[in-house]
């Protein structure tokens, strides 16, 4: 009887200690997970295979322009809190701050989208013509970041690009689920127009975008 009682007491003590240890581990894990989420781009935005080492070659080939630095204000309320990876160099971009205070064209696309591939060179030509008057920023909406970089390299398009595998921007701005799609943002962050369609030329883009932003028509200037 004494032996049975002793064994029961020992077993109860072990279970109680294990329960306490489990709570501590859970708390530690939760804290670690929270800290990690604040310092890294979500794995859902890109594949696990797309490590910095794996992306080094595609990034060099794509040779993308830098993503924009934060603007002079807090930016569009709908985009606040969205932090994405700059596909060109892996840096983190606060999207609302990046587009704050400047007229912006967001071009939403994916590497497997044929109309997107047709449109991207026209978007790049439009960006070249309009110069610094308008920020033209592409948003890749698929987890395969390496494929996006290789597609841009193949097309010779060097526009700054955000990696958005979760399609956070489209969800925040209520963009229809089609690609390509273009979102025109005014300097105050309000949405001037959402265009769920493709463009064949820079002239077509200018005709759709410039009146919405009050930008002088530079489609024929050859800038």
Automatic annotation (TrEMBL):
SUPFAM superfamilies, sorted: Thioredoxin-like
Cellular component, GO, one term: cell envelope
Span of domain Thioredoxin: 63-214
Keyword Transmembrane: yes
Classification via PROSITE patterns: THIOREDOXIN_1 (PS00194), THIOREDOXIN_2 (PS51352)
Compartment(s) where it occurs, according to its Swiss-Prot or TrEMBL record: Cell envelope
Compositional bias of kind Low complexity: 26-37
Gene Ontology biological process: cytochrome complex assembly
Pfam families the UniProt entry points to: AhpC-TSA
GO molecular function: antioxidant activity; oxidoreductase activity
Keywords, in A-Z order: Cytochrome c-type biogenesis, Disulfide bond, Redox-active center, Signal-anchor, Transmembrane
Positions of the UniProt region annotated as Disordered: 16-75
CDD domains tied to this protein: TlpA_like_family
Name of this chain's protein: Thiol-disulfide oxidoreductase ResA
Lineage, highest ranks first: Bacteria, Bacillati, Actinomycetota, Actinomycetes, Mycobacteriales
């Amino acid at each position: 009887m004494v032996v049975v009682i002793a064994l029961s007491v020992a077993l109860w003590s072990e279970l109680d200690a294990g329960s306490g240890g489990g709570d501590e581990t859970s708390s530690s894990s939760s804290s670690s997970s929270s800290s990690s989420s604040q310092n890294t781009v979500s794995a859902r935005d890109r594949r696990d295979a797309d490590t910095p080492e794996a992306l080094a070659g595609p990034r060099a080939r794509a040779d993308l322009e830098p993503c924009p630095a934060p603007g002079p204000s807090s930016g569009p309320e709908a985009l606040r809190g969205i932090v994405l990876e700059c596909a060109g160099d892996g840096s983190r971009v606060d999207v609302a701050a990046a587009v704050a205070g400047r007229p912006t064209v967001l071009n939403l696309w994916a590497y497997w989208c044929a109309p997107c591939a047709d449109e991207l060179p026209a978007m790049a030509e439009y960006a070249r013509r309009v110069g610094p008057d308008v920020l033209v920023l592409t948003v890749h909406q698929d987890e395969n970041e390496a494929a996006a970089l290789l597609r841009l390299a193949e097309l010779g398009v060097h526009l700054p690009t955000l990696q958005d595998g979760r399609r956070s921007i489209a969800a925040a701005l209520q963009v229809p689920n089609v690609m390509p799609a273009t979102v025109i943002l005014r300097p105050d962050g309000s949405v001037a127009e959402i265009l769920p369609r493709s463009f064949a030329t820079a002239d077509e883009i200018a005709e759709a975008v410039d009146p919405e932003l009050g930008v002088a028509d530079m489609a024929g200037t050859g800038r």
